[in-house]
Amino acid sequence: MATHPTYVDHHHIESDSSVFFKVATLLLGIAVGIVGFFALMMWADARDSRTDASAAPAARPAAVDHSQAGAMPLNSFAGVVPPNAQALAEAHKAYDAALPAAQAGPVAHVHLTLKDMTVQIAPGVKYNTWSFDGHGAPGPILHVRQGQLVKMTLTNGGTIPHSIDFHAARIAPNVAFRDVAPGESFSFQFRANDPGVFMYHCGTKPVLMHIANGMYGAIVVSPAKPLPPVDKNYVLVASEWYMTTDGIKQPASFDMAKAHAMEPDWTTFNGYANQYVTHPLTAKPGERVRLWVVAAGPTLDTDFHVVGTIFDRAWPNANITGTPQHGVQTVQVPAGGGGVFDVKINEPGLYPFVSHAFAHVDLGQVGLLKIGHPKGTMSH
Ligand code: CU
Ligand code: CU
Question: How far is the CA of 157 from the centre of ligand 1 (A)?
Answer without folding.
Answer: 11
